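URGENT: need a sanity check before tomorrow's submission.

F., can you look over the Flagellin record below? I want to be sure the sequence and structure line up before it goes out.
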Amino acid sequence: MSDITLSAGVRQNLLSLQNTADMMATTQSRLATGKKVNSALDNPTNFFTSQSLNNRASDLSSLLDSMSNGMKTLEAADNGLTSMTKTLESMQSTLRQARQDKSFEKTSYSVDLGDTPAGTEQLSLSGGALAAGVDIDLTTAGTGTAGSATAAYTADATAFTASTAAEATFTRTGDMAFDDAGDKLEFTIDVDGSGSPTTITIDAQTLTDASLGTTIIDSGADLAAAITQGLADAGVTGVTVSASGDDVTFTTDSTGADAQLDISAVTATNNGGSDTLADATGFSLTTANGADGDAVTFDIDVDGTSTSVTIDAQTLADASVGTTIDDITELTSVLDQALTDAGVTGVSVANDGTNVTFTSDSQGEDSSVTLSNFDTDADSGNNTNSLYGLASATSTAGTGEGALVAKTVDALVAEINANSDLEGKVRASNDNGSLRIENQSTNDLTVTGVTASTGTVDGSTGTDTIDGNKVRSDLATQFNDLRDQLDKLSDDSSFNGINLLQGDLLTMTFNETSTSTLDIQSEDGETINSSYLGLSTIDADALDADTDIDSLISTVKSALGTIRSQASTFGSNLSMVENREDFTKNMINTLETGADDLVLADTNEEAANMLALQTRQQLSSTALSLASQADQAVLRLF
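Structure tokens as predicted:
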């Protein structure tokens, strides 16, 4: 070839054809691959950038499968929780059905102990819901009569009049100056014989508290005011202080034999200075009534216990009859009050308008009431020689108990239903004259003291059986079966080897660097089953009492709340995973689109380029042909 010499025109056209062929080859490659950058030689920056974006998109695409599996695992757990919820609702319905069921077995027995009961006959109940047997006596003693005392009432007797209050006086003998620290006047006072005298102190502060405005007591009125303040400061009640000239009078609020007032230990302290406290010996005690007031006493013996009873002015006041007993109604009230004050129990007082009757509350041969030793203390000359209105008294003893008799059906019903050991376990009722016993349990109740063949309660050694509640017993079995299903549902709620209800940990990875993850697990990693929910197998007798059923219903309700809370948590987790899956898909699309934008060719543009190159190739071929013809012109010489 080097020996061949081409003309410039041929060589130029030949090079043009070669360039056109190269460009056509490049264009054809772009049209065939759809890319304008097929290797690093085409555009290193775009090629490697596009490859990096595609690699990340590929990594994220592999995570989508993991996310899909995670969502299926959550769906499996949710399926289990949904079924467990329905099971718990069924358990709740079972318990409510048991709560409403009252189909307890019952048996009616006639009561016949014969004409002469021995007194040892019993009806014994055991089994059922009873922790221990309960015995019911079938006989009782006959009823006796109560003892009483009757006093004739005389309407024209002289009235019993209340006495006056006790009094004490103090005479002021001179002025008292409380002008030095420590100056004081003290005395003790005991009101109505309390036995605990109170010390009263009067000093300069007492005068200030009494608003006297001076440190010198120079009148009976000021002294009375100071003493009143001193009593108030010491908390003494039940006494009134008044003044008349230099005399200060203490008066008790109470009246009668108990009205007393004792003042003693009077001292005056002078702590120095030119003034002195007056001699306090001017206190003098006078008793207008005191312990020697009008009173009536008598003795009352109730069922062998004798007590002395006193009626005085205070008794009348406590009985709210004023100061005088005017009729038999007031007399009855006063007697009742006097008995109460004396601590006499077991006797009732009543009247029929003519007589006052004292009646023992007990019955039988030991029942008696006796009145005796009437006495009066007529200081005021107002009392008769006997208790006002009671001219005489006669006593009648009670009669003894009667022979043993069989308890009535109503009495047995009342006794059985009042027995705390039988409450909510056995119930009795009167079935048209027969004793009906109801077994409020799922276990059989044994009744001893009956003849089963005749259906008679006779206190014998015979026994009968009252069946337990079969409906509640069957419902207990149903409850246990449903509880077992909870554990099976928990065991079967797995996907791809992961069971969230068994406490397994599911870790979801959301990016290619594993820096964005989500850990999904049950609360505290616990297994969600019957034990975790606080539900245990129950015996039939767990449904005996309505209160126990209510407690079980409450436990199932709490379990439902736990399941629903866990389902809500898993639902929130599923929502987050689904949201992240959508995000990842969109991110993959963004990465792939970005990568394609860097390397993909514009097919329309490349097709136009190909058409232009083909035209250019044809023109170059024609030009090469023309150039060759010019070189062939020399042949015409031959």
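My own read: Residues 44-100 form the longest helix (57 residues). The radius of gyration is 58 Å. If you see anything odd, call me.
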